[in-house]
Each structure stands twice: as C-alpha cells, then as structure tokens.
Amino acid sequence: MMLDDEQMHKELTVGEVAGRSGLAVSAIHFYESKGLIASRRNPGNQRRYGRDVLRRVAIIKVAQRLGIPLAEVGVALATLPQSRTPTAKDWARLSAKWKLELDARIEKMLQLRDQLNECIGCGCLSIENCKLRNPMDTLAEQGAGPRLLDPE
Questions:
Q1: In terms of pTM, does the model score above 0.85?
Q2: Partners of residue 49 on adjacent β-strands
Q3: Residue 111 sits in which domain range?
Q4: Per the domain annotation, does 148 fall within a domain?
Q5: Residues of the chain with pLDDT under 70
Q6: For 105-127, how does the pLDDT look when each residue is reduced to its tens digit (9 = 90+)?
C-alpha cells in the first residue's frame, strides 16, 4: 500500500516522538511493548507513529505522576479508538476514575499525617493508643516487653 505525502508527513519516527515528548527512545519502546502505544513498520522496517501517540504519551506521563499503575493506564487507553488523538472529552472520562482514586489516597495520607502528629516524640511507637503501630493497644495482650511489629 502506497502512502501519499500527507500521510507520510503526519507520521513520526521514534526519535521524533521521543524528542517531542521529552522521553528516551527506550521509554517509547517500553510503552509500545506494554501495548500502551502502537506503531506501524514502513517498507524499511522502521517504526512510524501517528501524531495521536504524542497525546497518548502525555496521558501516560500524567497518569504515572498520579501513581496510576501502567496496567491500569493500558486498560483506560484501550477504551480509546486507535489512530485518533484523544480529546478533552476522552481525558475527562479517563481521569474521572483516577481523580476519585487520588482523592482516596490523599484522604488516607492526611489521616496518616494526623496520626503521626499525635505520637510524635514518643520514640517507641508501641505506647498505649498508638494509632500508627499499635491501634487499640493490641500489643498489650502479648505482655510486657519488646515485640516484633512487622514480622515481614
């Protein structure tokens, strides 16, 4: 199949994708190996990417900054049509779930922070009512003395 000049112009080499996205070529190859982005091979067996891959890479990088596992990013990207640049509407749909997860993690971290403030300075982390390491003083049931808190 012959490609016209317009189609050839729209495609990017792996080096161009890397340069425009600020990533290493190896990262682009890694994302492709995980099925997060796709390329085609030209007659010279070189990878060529549609311009839509730049937006997909941007989505991947934002999701990674949010702590979203790549497997979950892949599931989300699989809901998008191939060879079409993700739109703002697509992003709103993809990010809605991630926002809820991020809010839940933030809430957990705030609770942890507040619990840490309650025992700061105690030094032992096993005092009665320690919410971080000894909630409800469960270690007291084992008697006096040191205990291995994290057996793993």
A1: no
A2: 12
A3: 95-140
A4: no
A5: 1-9, 83, 117-140, 145-152
A6: 999 888 878 777 666 555 555 55
